[in-house]
Amino acid sequence: MSALRELSVSELNEVSGGCGKYNYQFGISNGINFGCNAASYASYYSTQLGAYSGYLAGVYNVFADLAQCASKSVIAADIKNIASYVQLGAQIGAQSATNGLAIYKSVVSAISTSIANGGTKITFPPAVG
Known about the structure:
Blueprint: H1 9-16, E1 21-23, E2 27-29, H2 34-67, H3 72-95, H4 99-116
Antiparallel strand pairs: 1-2
């Protein structure tokens, strides 16, 4: 069995899933470090946030229709739409590093407006503004 050795910075990045920093006094310090590869991190998180926004909008629509006593077929269609909303949200988020946050803010705003107006369904993607 070979002796244990310190991992190189590139090996730390590989096993940690990102930009690992080594602090010789305290050991390994991991975290989101946008200095290493800012574009890939920002794109990844924007895509994830866009996908979550689609999920949030889809689930909200299901519950909005349940609250409005919609028919089973309408609710079933809402449930089927969740997957397409997630996919569309991820595509929107992947277009730019700021799109994920913009679409998320728009979904939250649309939900707030919907609740204030009686809990009607929202459209996805809502107008980003």
